């Protein structure tokens, strides 16, 4: 499982690098075209915006793996062993519940996104916002795996250690 997780996160990181590189090339190219030739490529503006959406959602998953999201753990760190572990498990379960609500909302919004297309490229907005599905599902699975991992651990003294 750890091997699959590493491969999955490496793939996400590679897609993020491609999105960032594509954004840089398209935006820089448009800036040069606008300043030197008073023209631009409309498609590159839209595609760079879509790449930014994907970069943001995939980045949220990668940062969650590294434990880099903002959090206030002052109270949790002050708790004794079992209470600390219980609070960490509850927080992971609440996180997965929030992701489930997010996925449910995405499902309700799906019909609208399929019907809408991007103005310039004609790409279905469902393709653009499918990054949100990937993000919510990934975060939910990660939170559930971390909750299970914490449940199986005898000691939660090192709350920074994750099963990844």
**How do the SSEs run, as a string of H and E?**
HHHHHH
Percent strand equals under 5%
Helix content, binned percent = over 70%
Distance between the termini: 9 Å
Largest sheet: none
- Give the overall shape, derived from the CA principal axes: elongated
Q: How many individual β-strands?
A: 0
Question: What does the model show?
Answer:
It is a single chain. 78% of the residues lie in helices and 0% in strands. The chain has helices at residues 2-37, 42-66, 74-78, 81-115, 125-128, 130-152. The model has no long low-confidence stretch (mean pLDDT 91).
In terms of topology, how is this protein built?
Elements: H1 2-37, H2 42-66, H3 74-78, H4 81-115, H5 125-128, H6 130-152
Briefly, what is this?
The protein is 78% helix and 0% strand. It has 164 residues and is mainly α.
């Amino acid at each position: 499982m750890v091997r699959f997780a590493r491969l999955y996160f490496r793939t996400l990181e590679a897609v993020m690098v491609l999105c960032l590189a594509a954004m840089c090339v398209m935006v820089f190219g448009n800036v040069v075209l606008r300043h030197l030739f008073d023209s631009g490529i409309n498609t590159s503006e839209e595609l760079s915006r879509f790449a930014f959406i994907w970069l943001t959602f995939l980045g949220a998953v990668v940062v969650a793996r590294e434990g880099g999201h903002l959090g206030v753990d002052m109270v949790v760190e002050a708790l004794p062993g079992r209470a600390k572990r219980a609070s960490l498990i509850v927080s992971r379960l609440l996180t997965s519940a929030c992701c489930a609500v997010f996925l449910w909302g995405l499902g309700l919004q799906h019909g609208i996104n399929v019907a809408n297309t991007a103005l310039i490229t004609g790409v279905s907005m469902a393709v653009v916002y499918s990054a949100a599905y990937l993000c919510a599902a990934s975060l939910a699975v990660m939170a559930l795996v971390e909750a299970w991992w914490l449940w199986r651990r005898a000691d939660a003294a090192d709350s920074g250690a994750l099963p990844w």
